[in-house]
Amino acid sequence: MNSGNLDILLVEDNQDDIDLALHALRRGKLANNIFVVHDGEEALDFLFCRGAFADRAFDHPPKLVLLDLKLPKVNGMEVLKQAKSDPRTRTIPIVIMTSSKEERDLVASYNLGANSYIQKPVDFDQFRETVKTIGLYWLVINQPPVVEDSGHLVGRAHDGR
Amino acid sequence: MTGRSDPRLVNRLRAFTAAAAVFSAAVGLSSLAGWIFRIPSLTTWGAGPVTMVANTAACFVLVGASLWLVRERDNQFFAGTRKLTARAAAVIVGVAGLLGLTEHLFRLDLGVDQLLLTAPPDLQIATTRPGLMSPITAGAFLLLGLALLGIDWEPWRAGRLAEFCALAAGGAATFGLLTFAFDPHIYAAHLSLALPTGVTLATCSLGLICARTESGLGALLCSRCLGGMLARRLLPAALVPVLVGWFRWRITVAGIYSEWSVVVCSSLISMSLLGGLIVWAAVAVDRNEAGQMKAEETRERLAAIVESSDDAIISNSLDGTIIAWNRGAEKVFGYSSAEAVGKPMQMLIPPERDNEEPEILARIARGESLEHFETIRVRKDCTYIDTSVTISPIRNSSGVMVGASKIARDVTEGKEAQQRLAAQAEELANSRRALEAQSLMLQSVLESMAEGLVAADAQGKFVIWNTAAENILGMGAVDLTSEAWPEHYGLFLNDTVTPFPSEQLPMVRALRGEANTTEMFVRNHKLAEGAWIEVTAGPRKTKDGIVCGGVAAFRDITQRKADEQEIQKLNDELEQRVAARTAQLLVANKELEAFSYSVSHDLRAPLRHISGFSKLLVEEFGSALDPAAQHYLERIQAGTQKMGLLVDELLNLARVGRHALNLQTTGLNSIVAEVQAVLQPENEGRQVEWSVAELPEVDCDPVLVRQIFQNLLANALKFTRPRAQSVIEVGCQKKEDGRPVFMVRDNGVGFSMKYVDKLFGVFQRLHSADEFEGTGIGLVTVQRIVHKHGGRVWAEAEVDKGAAFYFTLSAVTQTESESKSNGATAGAQS
């Protein structure tokens, strides 16, 4: 599976959330290179190029990881911790996007090196606006640390349909 | 009775007189009886031929009677039957004698001799005329009669006359007796006397002489003076010639020796007897003289003592006249002896004490003596002096008081010294009393103490050991070295079995100068159960800081120990329970956290999905749906939003409950400003007038307090929405023990105070959701935060008149530190 030149890695276990998130990204014209994993273990495999993602290369990291905290197998916080504690993955921007507004989650996330923390609003309009803003910021406005090739590599790419 | 008579001798002489009277009468009566019953031996006593005639016998009876009656002196010469009888008897005797004598001289026969009895012929022997008394006897009776008659008649020394008569009568009797003694068988006609007659006459004469001891021979015989003594000793010498004469006569009659040798022998005997008597008398005189000289010496020495004494020694007669005045008296009173003697004592006594002397004399007369009688006397120079006077009576040899002697001492100076001494003594006594009182007080304090108190000297010998000490330790102080104390008193370390090391005993340490407090266990035969005591000991020090002993106070802490153990046990149990409860709580908290965590994740997610998909449905298939379906979808949207809000606020409330207070000094004005900014969107298109007062800095959790203001200000904005002009006031008042009371007031729709109780209940709302949106959780959250701070929140409102919310935060206001820092700032600025 080739997942080089990926824009967004969405780590989310709930299919409803995945659909709504993709819908929102698509509305924001940001859904071109999105890869979705459904649990923390898969996310780690993806980030560390192992297991099912062994053919991936570290020199093609995603431009943004949208990470839910409540995940099966390995929770989001652990994923964040491992990703931010390894020099090979440390530079990947990780935005926590979760239902919780728990202060301890918030503090712990930032302590572990999360680049941003967003509570998913209940109101869909607000949610859509938030996702769009994040995508715009991290993919367009923000200057990433690594200059990557402009190849299109899509593994299990979703187009919403 | 004169002073020179010896009373014992006087009595003896009187007794002799009485005996003589009785003897005379007895002889007379027995002789008469001899005549009547013809018993010749009674008239002759068996000696010689001469008998006592009846007249003579009768005269002896009368003489005896008269002598008996006059043996006591009586000054009333012719008074009383007794005297008359005596005189009459005397006259009869005298007349009888005179008649007898007359018959003899003039050879008459007056028949007197026949008057009483006619002498029987066989008895009429050796007499010229039987029954006639001899002329000697007659003369003697005449003289005796005269003497008896005039014994107390003293116009011209009659006593002496009576004595002469008696002596003459005695001499006549002696003549007769001597004649008889030399040879009773010689019959000298007219001169011979019967033996009883001679003896009785001599006895009566002596008795008469002895009857009066006031004067004359009687007085001489009983005198204590030298003359009396000589008379008593030398009178027996009168018998010497009689003895010598009798001796010579017997020798001559016998014719054994030559005349010259008889003379020589009798002279020698006379000389020896007289010489012996003279020497005897002289020895007595000499001894008497020596005694007198000694007495004189003693007297002189006493006189010298009296003279040399510094004390005034005065004697006065009973009428108060001064009769002796020594040199001390001259010094004390200022009068010379010549000036004083013969003057009244009164001159020494101040006028105001005039009655003192008679009283003193009266007391002295009663036999009292006054010793160290303190009084005031006046000197010649009229100054008054304090004197101490000792007064005693002066008595003569017969014990009669004749005056008083006084020893007076000037104690004026002594008196002052005495007063000073008395004052000092008083002071001493006072301080002693004070000391005694203090010591008593200390003693009672010691005894009333519940603590045992013992004190020891530097050698460890106990000097104080109060009752409590005895009770607590079970025994009293002992004189043992400190090494023996642990064993004697049974002192143990805290393990209750190791004997307490003696060098570590509190008292021993105190004696080393260390103050200490120690617990120990005591168990001895008096305290079988054992007791815990706490001992506090310290050294006693002298003023120079040298340890001179130690004091230890101790009390029984057995109960306290037991209590402590009980408390420890309870505490342990409590801790265990608390730990268990805490563990339970921790578990519950964990569960709660897990619950709210999952609520925040799992409850919100479906809401989002409902919201999202219903929105997408409207957006993407809206044209295909009929308006009712679209409306329903909108209703679903609103429902999800409200549900989201509720979940959020509930989570918020739960978070507040779990939130640990993080107190920081916080300026509230900045928080209010932040909240105002956050709420700005709500103000859009409205007229809102904010009035925020100066708020103090307080210690609080800023995150939570921000929540308070957020909720209250949001409420204020919400409920003033119908007002054209919203007025929202934030203020602060100093109340409630100086703690600030914060206030948020608005002019909104308010509420009825009827429902004020529901205000802070979860999900309780006073307005319908149509009027004012809301979850009913905001004020509960406010209350929870305020309570977390230890404060209080309450509200006042009126329908349509607005509402005011007040709250306090118990955290201490920063006003003080503020003013301090202000002061410091001001100081730095100036």
Description:
The complex is a heterodimer of chains A (161) and B (830). Chain A is an alpha/beta fold and 161 residues long. Chain A has 5 helices and 5 strands. In chain A, strand 1, helix 1 and strand 2 form a beta-alpha-beta unit. Chain B is built from 25 helices and 18 strands. In chain B, the strands form 4 sheets. In chain B, strands 7-6-11-10-9-8 form a 6-stranded antiparallel beta sheet. In chain B, strands 2-1-5-4-3 form a 5-stranded antiparallel beta sheet, with helices on both faces. A 5-stranded mixed beta sheet of chain B has the order 13-15-16-18-17. The longest helix of chain B is centred in the C-terminal third of the chain and has 64 residues. Chain B starts with 6 loop residues before the first helix and ends with a helix. The C terminus of chain B is likely disordered. Classes of the chains: A alpha/beta (161), B alpha+beta (830). The interface between A and B is medium-sized, with 20 and 23 residues.
